[in-house]
Amino acid sequence: MATCEVCGNDYGMTFEVHAQGAVHVFDCFSCAIHRMAPICEHCRVQIIGQGVEVEGHWFCGAHCARAEGRAGIVDRV
User: Fold this and answer.
1) What's the CA gap between 12 and 17, in Å, rounded?
2) Are 36 and 18 in contact (CB under 8 A)?
3) Is 60 in contact with 45 (CB distance < 8 Å)?
4) pLDDT for residue 77 is more than 70
5) What is the pLDDT of residues 40-75, one digit of tens each?
6) Which domain of life is it from (predicted)?
7) H/E/C letters for each residue in the chain?
8) How many CB atoms neighbour CB 3 within 10 A?
9) pTM of the full predicted structure?
């Protein structure tokens, strides 16, 4: 069994996420999201979907990017 790095649960069905040279162990998706999801630099929501990355800064969408002064960012639907 392995231990979730967020909640400390010692669970037989943990899973690993390999990202940027590191290995993370979680017992559920909510713990993985809590640890791995970037946070919008304008409204502070965790970005679960696509998000927008502008010059190394993360936003949940074009509206928040524009609110922070980033130009030319458009949401696609």
Assistant:
1) 16
2) no
3) yes
4) no
5) 999 999 999 889 999 899 999 999 999 999 988 877
6) Bacteria
7) CEECCCCCCEECCCEEEEECCEEEEECCHHHHHHHHCCECCCCCCECCCCCEEECCEEECCHHHHHHCCCCCCCCCC
8) 14
9) 0.76
Pull the structure tokens for residue 62: 């074009």
The whole-number pLDDT of residue 73 equals 83
Residue 52, token pair as written in the block: 């927008």
- Read off the pLDDT band of 1 (50, 70, 90): confident
27: Cβ contacts below 8 Å, ≥ 6 apart: 4, 7, 9, 11, 13, 14
Two tokens, residue 38 = 């970037």
